[in-house]
Amino acid sequence: MSDAPKPAPAVVALTGACTDLGVETLRRLSDDPTIETLIALDVSAPDVISDKVKFVHLDLSQPGAGMRIADVLEEYKPDTFVHAAFLSAPTHDGAWAHELEDVGTMHVLDACARQQPQRLVLFSTTLVYGAKPDQPAYLREDAKLGGVTESRFINDRIRAEEQVLRFARNHPNIDVCSLRFAKLLGPNSDNLFTRFLSRPVAPTLTGFDPLMQCVHEDDAIRAILLAIRKSARGAFNIVGKDVLPYTTLLALLGRLPLPLPKGFAKFIGKAMWATKLSEVPSTMIDHLQYSCVADATRARETLGFEAKYDIRQTLAEFLGMPMEPEMHSPKPATRTATWMN
Question: What CATH number is given for 11-184+216-239+293-307 in this structure?
Answer without folding.
Answer: 3.40.50.720
